Amino acid sequence: MIPTPDLSHLSRDDYDQVYEPAEDTFLLLDALEEDAESLKRSKPTICLEIGSGSGCVTSFIGNILGPSVLYICTDINPHACQCSRWTGKQNKVDIHVVNGSLATPFKHRLARKIDIIVFNPPYVPTSEEEASGAQSSQDIDGAWAGGRDGMQITNTLLNCIEKLLSPCGRFYLVALKQNDVPGIIRRMHEAYCLKGEVVHQRRAGREHLFVIRFAREQ
Amino acid sequence: MVRLITHNLLACHAKDCNTNNFPLAFKDVQLEIREAEFNPEFLRGFLPKLEWTALVDTAKQLGDTSLPVEQPEMLDDEFLKNLHHVLLEIHVEEGSMTCPNCGHVYPILNGIPNMLLAEHEIG
Ligand SMILES: C[S@@+](CC[C@H](N)C(=O)[O-])C[C@H]1O[C@@H](n2cnc3c(N)ncnc32)[C@H](O)[C@@H]1O
Ligand SMILES: [Zn+2]
What Gene Ontology biological process does one annotation of this record name (chain B) (predicted)? Predict the structure, then answer.
């Protein structure tokens, strides 16, 4: 058992501004824990979490893989960036945090160099205006407002993933049933020859959540 | 908390800015030195991912001249310790980073680099 990261330093005030770990977060942790051994064996050097929020997920990965990996987090919400940094510190994981959108600040320098990419995105279907508004306001609404099919933000990233992943790299994505999981897998295969697999799924209340893992075809 | 290891991975990503957009130039920086745990295994593994000249030049601008101009073949302890210090112990707390190509300025606030672009600047 890998312990769930210590989040006792975060308060209600923080969670008014930053996404509080929930069922989707824990489903992702379960999927990563199941892959712990094979992740270790793949000897990663760079791990990037997009939309790290509280920093819970990267701290968890840091506990699995130890200090010989560079842990990078991005989030559009500046308060989430601070929380990710604190959570790293609290859990003795050295996290490098950048206030930015998706992986864009790294796309030039880390092309085909990232070994692990993780994204629990804003996946709730909303109007496009709502999603765009949340993206520019950089606040807590950006944690869930996903636009058309809940895929507006995720789709932008999906088009860059192949360029970022190292030869043996993996990408873990959280998705909702309404996001059309089989469609996502099919599109990534057709457009980029990336093989996607549902590694975990769970019904949580009204939400049916999935974790998809993508890798190059060997 | 922008450290030189992160700085070495960041490039300008403004619309149509694709060449000569790296390394970003530090300006008006406030530095803090904080000790970090020395991990030679990590450093050895990370070395191939670095842009060496950019790292050496940036360190120099921040007042650290401990790194050789060419990456050495023999990674002895003294070299690795210097590299460790440059990459992980020099923290840029405040200041900004400017793109050498288009001049876009990325501020550093409370130790976190702000790489967000406005809607019309996104490529
Ligand atoms: C569902 S929350 C997940 C938070 C955390 N990773 C977790 O699992 O608990 C989505 C996160 O993505 C961030 N986000 C939304 N759009 C983003 C974008 N374009 N780039 C980076 N982060 C983004 C939000 O601010 C929020 O922190
Ligand atoms: Zn530029």
Answer: tRNA methylation
